[in-house]
Structures are given as C-alpha cells and as structure tokens.
UniProtKB/TrEMBL annotation:
Protein's organism: Afipia broomeae ATCC 49717
SUPFAM superfamilies with a match to the protein in the record: Glycoside hydrolase/deacetylase (SSF88713)
A GO BP entry: carbohydrate metabolic process
Membrane-crossing residue ranges in chain numbering: none
Residue ranges that the Swiss-Prot or TrEMBL entry lists as coiled coil: none
InterPro entries in alphabetical order: Glyco_hydro/deAcase_b/a-brl
UniProt protein name: Polysaccharide deacetylase
Length: 335
C-alpha cells in the first residue's frame, strides 16, 4: 500500500512488550536444512499450513460455490497530520491537495457508488472509521437505510494500531466499537485494521472484545480459523489486496480500465476454480479512488459482469460468510 505521513516528523514506533516478544519467540517452525540441522523460522502461530486442494469440500448456501462481496472503505483523515494515501507525492505541509482528494470520496464519490450499488441491487459491507459517524453522518445514515453491514475499521486511517502497546490497542478497539454500537444499535461482528495494521496481539484483542471475524489477512481463498489466547479463536475471512483499488491504482498506477479488467478476469477464473473448491472473492473499494467519474464507468461494467451471473454465485457480505461458516461441521473450515 502507498501511504504517507503528512508531517515531516515521524511518529516513533513503540516496541512490542516483553511478553509479546516471549510469545513470538516460542512460536517457531522447525525446518530441516540439507545438513540435518534445524532452522527456526518465526511464526505468527495463528494457523497451520493447509493446501486448498486437500481440504474437505463444502457448498455455500443453495449449493453455490463462489461467494462474492464488496468491501467499501469509508475513511476519514486528519488534516495536516498522520497517514494518508497520495495522489501526488511530496506536497507541502499542510498537504491540501491530497487531503482534499481523499475528502472527495466522502462528499461526492460515495454517493455515486451508492447509486451504482442501488442500480445493480448489490449488497455492500461498509468498512468504517468511527470518526466517519461524526464527520459525515448522512453517509452512514444512507447505508443504514439500505441495511448495509458495518465493519469496524479503527478510529481514523491517519493512524495505525500495529505500533500500539496492548492497553492502547485495546482502547482503540473499544472506542471504535462503542461508536458503531451507539449509532447502529449493535456491535460490529467484523474488523479490518486501518492500513491493514496488526500487532502481535490483535487477533487476541479482537476475540476478547467480542469480534467474530477479521479481514486483514489475504493468504487464502477460503475462511480460516485463527487461534487466540486462552483457548479462543476468530475467523479470518479473505480480504483482497489484488482486487483492491489502493494497491492497484495508487500503488501500481493501474488505470481504472485495468483495475476493472482485473475484477472481470479474477471473477471468471474463480468461477471456474470454484467447481473444485468453494471460494470467496472480495472486492475492496475506496470512494475517493473508484468514485472518480473516469474510474466509476469501467467499474460499473465490471460489476455488471458479476451481476449477470447472479444465479450462479452467492453475492453476500463477509458477515454472512462468517455466520455461515459457523453452521458447518467442525473441521470443514481449516485452522
């Protein structure tokens, strides 16, 4: 991902606690080198290796094999401080150009996308910074009226949670959760860290805070159970970093047409692959990127391709995917 710090002075990265370091040192994979000596490779310790071709088979609801969801990132940024994606690098401080470019998404782009989702009758999951509720409440009200799922996405995308101490990260999660619960009447079930940022303890803290699934990991095309401390667990639902407009358009400088064609090619290929295994295909969007008119048009064409196959696929949300996984017999979803 391409990101920037809007002030010349970098925020000092806080080292992880000794307890976390001890836990990490105990989570080692034992490998054998050619001379027979063991090699210790640090591991996250959250899940084991599982080849997708060797797993128990299952279907999605109604016998469908490919689940497709859209994750719409609604993000609010600090002015003149903190992190943020860049349209043009190296701007003066305060960085008016890039701040205003991102703010276009909340003022204009998101409303164009709402029209598009309504036009195609597409459900959407909103991955929301909690500060969005106070900055542009009309946006969240519009999605509430449409019954959109809300996923916790931190307080603001001007900060990362992965550099925080345990108590600080607990507070960030608690603050974001409380705001969403206050406005929506229920706690979000899912979480995506701002900037896909996690500490060594994030899955533990999310499970202990009542979250059922997280979206930060892109290592699989099926949901995977993560182990958490004290015997807990939390589900990892696949979240895309390829079909994601920030790495594609901001990072690799792909055009809107290229990004849209990626969506179509990915969909058609996964639809064929799903005859062998049931799969999840996510599409990650940001209103300040694909909400621009010249990118919205090719995106519409790509989504029309998916909608044309509506009878063959499960168009859903990550929350519904997680709920369905819990109904499957133990051992079907790998850990």
């Amino acid at each position: 991902m391409v990101e920037k710090t809007s002030t010349p002075k970098e925020k000092q990265i806080v080292p992880i606690s000794a307890a976390v370091a001890d836990a990490s040192s105990n989570q080692k994979n034992q490998l054998r080198s050619r001379n027979g000596k063991s090699l210790e490779v640090p591991s996250h310790g959250r899940y084991g290796y599982s080849a997708i071709v060797n797993r128990p088979d299952f279907n999605w609801p109604d016998g469908k094999r490919l689940a497709v969801y859209i994750g719409l990132n609604l993000e609010h940024f600090s002015f003149g401080d903190g992190l943020g994606a860049e349209l043009c690098p190296g701007g003066p401080h305060p960085d008016v150009l890039n701040y205003a470019w991102r703010d276009y998404g909340n003022r204009v782009g998101v409303w164009r996308l709402i029209d598009l989702f309504d036009e195609l009758s597409l459900p959407v999951s909103v991955l929301a910074n909690s500060s969005i509720y106070h900055y542009c409440p009309e946006v969240m009200e519009a999605f509430r009226k449409r019954g959109a799922e809300v996923v916790g996405h931190g307080r603001t995308n001007s900060e990362r949670q992965g550099i925080l101490l345990e108590a600080e990260e607990q507070q960030l999660i608690a603050e974001c959760t409380a705001v969403i619960a206050d406005f929506e009447g229920r706690q979000p079930a899912g979480w995506l860290g701002p900037w896909i940022s996690q500490s060594h303890l994030t899955p533990d803290l999310l499970a202990e805070a009542g979250y059922g699934y997280l979206l930060d990991w892109c290592m699989d095309d099926q949901p995977i159970w993560f182990s958490a401390r004290n015997g807990g667990r939390i589900l990892s639902v696949p979240y895309p970093q390829e079909l994601n407009d920030i790495p594609s358009i901001v990072g690799r400088k792909d055009s809107g047409e290229q990004f849209a064609q990626m969506i179509v090619d990915n969909f058609e290929e996964m639809l064929e692959q799903s005859t062998k295994q049931s799969l999840v295909m996510g599409i990650a969007l940001h209103p300040y990127i694909v909400g621009q008119p010249h990118r919205l048009r090719p995106l519409r064409r790509a989504l029309q391709t998916i909608v044309a196959k509506r009878r063959d696929i499960w168009i859903t949300t990550p929350g519904r995917i997680a709920d369905y996984c819990r109904t499957l017999p133990e051992g079907i979803i790998q850990s």
